Amino acid sequence: MDDTTNVPEAPELDRQIAAFMTFARVEAGLSEATLEAYGRDLDVMRETLVGTGIRMPGEVTVDHLAAHLRHLSRGRGLDARSIVRHLATMRVFFRWLHANFRLEKDPARLLERPTTWKKLPGTLTPGQMKKLVECPCADHGALWLRDRAMLELMYAAGLRASEVGAIKLNDYVKELAIVKVTGKGNKQRIVPIGEPALAAVERYLAELRPHLARFQDGRDQYRLLLSHTGRPLERVAVWQLVRKYALAAGIRGVHPHLLRHSFATHLVAGGADLRVIQELLGHSDIGTTQVYTHVDRSHLRETLAAFHPREAKGRPARGAA
Question: Does 283 participate in catalysis according to the annotation?
């Protein structure tokens, strides 16, 4: 039996969606990937709207669109990035209808802009991070010293997977306890590293890297971390190694960026200045760094109890007579 007979018809809504897709393909000249994304998003929106009795674009209100976004999040379980894409598609579609006098009012104009949608990053606890970075040992093969140095550096300096693999020998300065990092857009930053990372890197340099760099054909490109073939450690390999040691440490759902998130979150929880964290992470916009102020709030109650004059127990308020 043909299931399409059970799909409610909405000829006017369908006609306007088809007209928009023709405009996007022919006049706007959008790429096939963008067109496919628009088409999928509008099909899902149509399904939700028609399911609530909507048959024409003019019947759509901002409440209908907000309900659709909630359905995407709660009903379909889409992540924040996917919801932002759906939101952008709806805004473009209804703006086009309004601009071409096919719609009297644009119901999407009151929806929050995509830039206001932020997904709070996940983090590991300090205890979990300790287990992860200390996991590599001789039982994990001949390259465990390199892997320990890699994990220590990533957590000590808040490095991305691509950044830790790109570090060159002269980017690491033991005497100053710093590492020069080349981030997105080839922007460089100097990040201090602590004793555990220094010790791990020094042991790797002394005991393992000379063996990995035994080839004299320049394949190492003067990189700090090398593969067993003597070539630079690639981003994909960093991902694989992080997941390998996370599973060995009994921690699931770990990826390289989680170490960066944990680095920033633990600094915030320890009271570090947000501008300093911004500099360490290499963020050009402080707004990107501010997301970490919402991640770890476990210390707020203790702060309130310790310093608020109405909350402090057994301690006279400052300035009390």
Answer: yes
252 is catalytic: no
Tens digit of each residue's pLDDT (9 = 90 or more) over 56-80: 999 999 999 999 998 888 888 887 7
What is 213-272 written as a DSSP string? Answer: T--SSSTTTTBSSB-TTSSBPPHHHHHHHHHHHHHHTT--S--HHHHHHHHHHHHHHTT-
Active site residue 257: yes
Range 202-207 contact pairs with CB under 8 angstroms and sequence separation of 24 or more: 202/174, 203/145, 203/149, 204/145, 204/146, 204/148, 204/149, 207/145
DSSP code for 95 = H
Residue 292 designated active-site: yes
Catalytic pick among 184, 219, 255, 310? 184
Q: What is the pLDDT of residues 86-106, one digit of tens each?
A: 998 999 999 999 999 999 999
Choosing from 148, 209, 223, 260, which is the catalytic residue?
260
Q: What are phi and psi of 55, to 5 degrees?
A: -125, -20
Model pTM? 0.60
